[in-house]
Specification:
- This is DUF429 domain-containing protein.
- The protein has one helix at about 30-40; strands at about 5-10, 10-20, 25-30.
- With about 40 residues, the protein is an alpha+beta fold.
- Strand 1 (about 5-10) and strand 2 (about 10-20) form a beta hairpin.
- The chain is globular and about 30 Å long.
- The two termini are about 10 Å apart.
- The relative contact order is 0.26.
Length: about 40
């Protein structure tokens, strides 16, 4: 099961997601468009 979250921050947008049982990943995007271009399948 995949888990995904996004929230605004001073740098823009921070996302955290888990694609497997062992690894969480965190990314920071300057714009919501940049986020959407990367994770349009979320």
């Amino acid at each position: 099961m995949n888990y995904f979250g996004i929230d605004g921050c001073k740098a823009g947008w921070v996302s955290i997601y888990k694609r497997n049982q062992l690894k969480w990943e965190i990314e920071i995007f300057t714009t919501i468009k940049e986020f959407w271009n990367t994770h349009s399948d979320a």
